[in-house]
């Protein structure tokens, strides 16, 4: 079985490469997803049986500051992949990686696949629009999750009042592997087994010197305060 992974240099993509060891992982130079021509050439040339689309512009500030780049990458890039798969005509299985941030996170927690998204920032808007592009392709699965790499927290502080059902990247990758085996379609949430703050997550990842902060101290684009997901379609994974 031939597997293609976009965005394989990121935290999730790197974890996926360890699971799908023979996957083809084109670099940005080999396949710039914002350019329809290279996307078609690579996909039609390689003819994958499974395509896991992780490539995205994920920085909330960066997306807010450069909306054109965010739209081109997250929305048009996904549409380019869908268009190429339609041309491929081999019924390749598409996995589109979305985010828990498509929900507002206000006065509610534990969003399921049935809940209606309500994005709070431009990053979230583009990821939701990417979902819409992926849904044009019949043999597809949209996965929403929230993960971090298991490593030292990259910021000096972490929120004590921003929550999620987080996983580490390796666990999210295992969830994707499980879903690919069953070729599930539609929207699925890959979630951790407990809700925790980002500060708790930082400590769990092994960061000892990370400080505490609240959303009141934050100055930037709107954030989803509660990113906790639940699932009606899939199992939960124990964060370790």
Total DSSP E strands: 14
Which residues form runs of ≥5 with pLDDT under 50? none
What shape does the CA trace take?
Answer: globular
CATH homologous superfamily caption: NAD(P)-binding Rossmann-like Domain
**Helix share bin:** 25-40%
Q: CATH topology, what is it called?
A: Rossmann fold
Give me the strand/helix succession. EHHEHHEHEEEEEHEEEHEEE
| Text of the CATH class | Alpha Beta
What does this structure look like?
The protein is an alpha/beta fold. The protein has a single domain, classed as NAD(P)-binding Rossmann-like Domain (Rossmann fold), CATH 3.40.50. The chain contains 7 helices and 14 strands. The protein has helices at residues 11-19, 36-46, 60-65, 67-88, 122-134, 169-182, 198-204; strands spanning 3-6, 50-53, 93-97, 140-144, 147-148, 157-159, 163-164, 167-168, 186-189, 191-192, 196-197, 211-213, 226-227, 236-237. The strands form 5 sheets. The protein has a 5-stranded parallel sheet with strand order 1-2-3-4-9, sandwiched between helices. Strand 3, helix 5 (122-134) and strand 4 form a beta-alpha-beta unit. The radius of gyration is 17 Å and the shape is globular. The model has no long low-confidence stretch (mean pLDDT 97).
């Amino acid at each position: 079985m031939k597997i293609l992974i976009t965005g394989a240099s990121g935290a999730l993509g790197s974890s996926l490469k360890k699971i799908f060891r023979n996957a083809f992982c084109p670099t940005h130079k080999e396949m710039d997803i914002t350019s329809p021509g290279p996307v078609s050439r690579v996909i039609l040339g390689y003819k994958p049986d499974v395509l896991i689309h992780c490539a995205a512009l994920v920085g909330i500030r960066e997306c807010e500051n450069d909306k054109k780049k965010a739209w081109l990458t997250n929305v048009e890039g996904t549409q380019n992949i869908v268009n190429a798969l339609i041309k491929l005509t081999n019924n390749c299985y598409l996995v589109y990686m979305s985010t828990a941030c498509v929900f507002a996170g206000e006065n509610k927690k534990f969003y399921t696949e049935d809940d209606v998204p309500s994005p709070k920032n431009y990053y979230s808007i583009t990821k939701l629009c990417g979902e819409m592009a992926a849904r044009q392709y019949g043999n597809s699965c949209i996965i929403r999750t929230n993960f971090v790499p298991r490593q030292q927290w990259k910021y000096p502080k972490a929120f004590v009042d921003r929550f999620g059902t987080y996983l580490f990247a390796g666990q999210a990758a295992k969830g994707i592997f499980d879903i690919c085996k069953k070729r599930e379609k539609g929207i699925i949430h890959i979630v951790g087994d407990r809700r925790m703050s980002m500060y708790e997550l930082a400590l769990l990842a092994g960061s000892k010197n990370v400080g505490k902060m609240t959303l009141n101290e934050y100055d930037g684009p709107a954030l989803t305060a509660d990113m906790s997901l639940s699932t009606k379609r899939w199992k939960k994974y124990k964060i370790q």
